[in-house]
Amino acid sequence: MKVLNLGYIKEQRQKLNKTLQEVAVEIGMKNASTYMKYENGTYSFKAEQLPQLAKSLECNIEDFFS
Description:
Layout lengths: L5 H10 L4 H7 L5 H8 L10 H7 L10
C-alpha cells in the first residue's frame, strides 16, 4: 500500500506561496484548520480529494507518493 508523502504536500503548497485557507477552499473544505489536520496527518486524505489537491498544488497525483 502506498503512503502519502505529507511533507511533499506541505512543501509544494509553500513553494507555490499558497495559504492553508487557499488550498482548503480549492479542494472544497470550509476552513484552513480542517485542511491543516489533513496536511499534518491527523486526518487522512480520501482518494476522491487527490485530483483536486493535485490541481491546486500544480502537480501529479503520483508526486504525492514519492
